[in-house]
């Protein structure tokens, strides 16, 4: 069970969020729903500080130190799975001159997630999810990946994830996981000028697999 704390006050206003409230409690799995479907930077911060305090063995670690510690874990893990052409400076992709990732590394990370963490893949394959806090209240989030919206213009039945991303310098990005003829594939598009462009580009890549 993770409890949201004052780390939420550190989330920049321009970042997307799940609109979590301080003092709310969710299981880690449900906090991942808040992270992955609406791109909740607030959920990312809560996960980051909790993991950092547990892994470091210092439950009193300050928020900023915890975020930096978690980012260090991100880079160590990326190196372990040979995603070595990227460098992370924060857990949410906030623009930073030293924060960068390549399409190849995104594909490596996505492949690792699909093959190692089925619970994450299950979350990202959902278009809508409702979670229940420990106090009985609920939140419902929609997936920012419109390839999963059956009622939308960009829906594709082969897609089962994985994640959108948007930043001023990076543009509109998408890492799309899909399955055809019993094989799983990953399509990565980055630097798209509009939200629509990223889905059109991803669908074009998906169409190449017959």
Please tell me about this protein's structure.
Helix 1 packs antiparallel against helix 2 (41-56) and helix 1 packs across helix 5. The protein is of the alpha+beta class and 210 residues long. The model has no long low-confidence stretch (mean pLDDT 96). It has a 3-stranded antiparallel sheet, with helices on both faces. A two-stranded antiparallel sheet has the order 1-2. The protein has a two-stranded antiparallel sheet with strand order 3-4. The protein has helices at residues 28-36, 41-56, 63-80, 103-116, 118-124, 195-207; strands at residues 2-3, 25-26, 128-132, 138-142, 159-167, 171-180, 183-192.
Compact summary:
The chain is α+β, with helices and mostly antiparallel strands.
Chain-wise SSE layout:
Blueprint (H helix, E strand, L loop, with lengths): L1 E2 L21 E2 L1 H9 L4 H16 L6 H18 L22 H14 L1 H7 L3 E5 L5 E5 L16 E9 L3 E10 L2 E10 L2 H13 L3
